[in-house]
Protein 1
Amino acid sequence: MSLATGQQHALQARDLLGDTKIRPVIEALILSDAALEDISEHTLNITGNKISKNVLDMYRHYFWNRELLSSGEWFSYLEEHPNGELLSQCYRQGLEYALWRLGYRVELSQQDVLRGVFHESAMRFFETTTQSNTRDTAFTAKMWAENIFKATEELNKTGDEVRQVLDELKSVAIKLGKRDISSIDKLK
């Protein structure tokens, strides 16, 4: 009834339907399942316009309610939408992906990225085991396995930068024929 009775937040939400700058941002963020507070903050950062949580709540309620449709219904609807591919990926991938696609720089920790690479590679590797054993399948499995091993190596690093520098120096020294380096002082 808030829209029918002309409630302020509902009318402001309705006016967003015609805003070609803000509407794509809030729709992508709503589909990414972001919290209203985050949508408000990121909309300000991306568009320069502050939209209150109350207005966003009304917009979500009346015009872009993620909970109203099932996943299949959303994907079916988005097939015909002009930005359907982007919005479908925002629905699937979540907030960080949506922000990236909207041009907002998302800071991710190296550990999170490596865990993501490890997980995706592991799942893709297991997926290849269900396929027929062909040359292409073998190469694909090998590629995913290499990604798993590289991500595992990176995740297992101690994070001790001095130790990493020493390891690098050891590898250089080994190439030069010096093998007895146990500290930076002995390197002199």
Protein 2
Amino acid sequence: MLRLREERLKRGWSLARLCALTGGIDPAALSKIERGYWPAGPGWRRRIAEVFEMPESVLFEPVNEGESRCERP
């Protein structure tokens, strides 16, 4: 799981709300990104980080080591 999910929940935002704030990134895609099932491309990473007003390096770091499914072979 990425810090992205923690930050979204801290703010009380639903995936639908984050979708609206990012200019239409699909909620299903956002969910997969948060859980580490799907890597966010550079454009999406930038858009999401801008919404949270946080650096990408912080927002997209894993909060539980070994859980990111994008990095598994």
Protein 3
Amino acid sequence: MPKRRFYFLEPSKVGIQHITMIEGYLTALASSTSIGRDFDLELCASASTLAALPEALTSKIRCTRVPVMNPEKRRLIRKSLLELLVVLRWLVKLRPGDVLFVSCILPPAFWLLAYAHRLLRRTGVHVVLHDEIEGLFGGAPLSFRSIGYWCATWLRSRRADSRLSLVVIDDFIRDRLLEQYPAKLTRANVSVVHQAVLPPAAAPAADGQGKAVCLVGFRTRLKWFDAIVQMASDHPSVTVLAIGGGKVENLSDGTVEPLSDKPAYFEALSSCSAAVFPYVSGYAATLSGAALDALSVGLHILALDRPFFRSLASYLGPEWVTVRSTIDELSAELDDCRLSRKAQNRAARLRSLADSKYGIAAVRRSFERQLVGPTA
């Protein structure tokens, strides 16, 4: 008898977008003896996504290319229709016992998929919710051109007994959705598979390697870059870096150095004592990939009070995360003595991270509970 198929379908992202989550999930799946016994794994993604993943990982999995519209050039409706067609192709081919795991999909496509699934009545279909659901919690008026509008449209049309299973990437996201929409969502149809925090290939720097802090990732409107610049001015004894977008900018002396590759990016992060996240909005129902990168090398997180960072602080504790209500309080944490303390015990933090819910072993167990059963 042929094995059941586990289709890991990524119809939305290209290149390195989303790559950390994809790599973490696939690493967990491929490392599971019980899942490998019962399922053949097939990754369905764009050619550029397949090329961005380590060959040591993709060589263990059957890989299939799918057409994907570049999100940076997207037209919301056109891209949604392409995603829907790709998902429907795999939905139709599902055999009894197979699993279709859609790792990301735009809300308009999700809304249409929900109707198609209602007609086809396939079991074993899981869709991961990401930052698109932020629009449900923003409080701003929604237009049909916004992601939040389509999230709300999908949610209003959802039946409480829907067999289309939802997956979120952290506990606080599930809890917030269940609290906000009790008539539409239950613990039976919203599960959590945490995003794995993968250790980088290069070993992180040891404790106390210089007095440097960093802003991580692209300079979006959510990150209050001007506040980081002001911190560099207020704390001349601390080196303040902006790491991301292919470069390292030293905000303390104005120099800029290119980042040649992913190992260079993690090496730059590792040279710091802490990472600063003065995020002023967003992250009410999603994770910061930049913060997860910082965690992967053992950096202490300094952040303004957003739901994600509050959840992170509650789970990991004060050794890992400091959350403050105002930018002045956050800036005060860059005091030499405080910063020195935060740089300590990095090796112990990294050991605790491997054993946490963000470690590969925990993510693997989450998949096994879903696919094989609670005794896996």
Protein 4
Amino acid sequence: MIEVAIYEPELLCVEMLRVALSEETLEARLRAIENVKYDVRTSAAESLFSGKRQVNDDPRYIASLHQIAKTSGRSYEAAYELAQTTQRFETKNERKLNIAEHIGNVVLLSIYTKKFQGVQTDDGILTQVQCDARKHNIYGGKNHDTLRDIWRTYRGVVHLGMAMAYCEDNPNADVNVLHLAEEYRRALSENCPKKAVDPYVDSSLQIKFTYKTRY
């Protein structure tokens, strides 16, 4: 399991973290998350110099100016790579991630209702999702092999998008999205289908998001 610290400014851009997770490999996801962090920090630092503020007498502004100058090359690189990630997300990866998160929700429901259904069994979760996709004509979800590949690719990161969707559907609920994502992650990694010894998602495949108040 890889733990990623998320600070408050980054939490305000949690949608971009989900975009970063839409990359198809762990290495690409971690790079994309790093790019999001650089982009957030650069935007926050640059905002300090907006308007008519005087920066000479405030150490925060001076430190931010030095940070912008020191990391300007990496910041431009991060912005460029993040734009590429976003383009891949919008053209193909968003659909795959949506499907994977739906599979994750069906798995979670099976856990919470104590059915503990298998994922790839004949009448298991992928078969249920496949039937739903055919019923609602959902592109990319009608083929069992495609669903298996999508789940294999994204099962370690679906918990964040699942938590975001819950918070969006329940705006009045007093829920921290990262705390809920961690609850989902643990449920997926600590429970097994009936008659199985392996969890729904091995923790070694997962990215854990931890909220931090200070850099």
